[in-house]
Amino acid sequence: MFNKAKNASTENKAATLIAAEPRSSSSPPPSNNSARSSLSVIGSNTQVEGDINSDEDLTVEGRVSGIITCKQHTVTLGANGYIKGDVFAHTLHVSGEVNGNLVALHRATIHKGAKVSGTIIAPCLVLEDGSTFHGSIDMNPDNDVLKSAFNDGSVSTKTSSTLSSTSGSAAPKTTTDKPAANKSPAAQHDQTEA
């Protein structure tokens, strides 16, 4: 009455189609390019005037005048790069010149040859020998500016104005005319206020 071979063949086809269906509806496997994090670069011959909001790593080789917001990623300022304005990032690497405030959620590194004037707020700070810094440092992870800048989704004008009034960006609280020495940032900060 029943032909088992015929029914088995039909069942196998149905099973094959059902098994193939989830594979075709799922997204394709990630390619090598999407596995790498994305990066934006402001080239050495580029000048940007205005605020920058980035949801990827950002490298600045040119000149930027404005607020840079890159809260979940890394901002890198190349040796010939220049930033006039505040920078908010997860991690900062500065090799060029900054005239503004740096706020890093995780770490800020001021590399040899860098020139920074303003306030640095970061729970972890590295000032390499040969870097120049004028301003104040706050490494308190509970800093109000740090909390308000990274708790909501955007940098508010309140955060920027609080930072400006805290830092006195026109006239920094402390001045270090010498390159950074082999001292911890806290020890160097204490020395500059003496």
TrEMBL record:
InterPro entries: BacA/B. Residues 1-38, 154-194 are annotated as: Disordered. Pfam families: Bactofilin. It comes from the Bacteria. Residues 22-38, 154-181 have a biased composition (Low complexity). Belongs to the bactofilin family. This is Polymer-forming cytoskeletal protein.
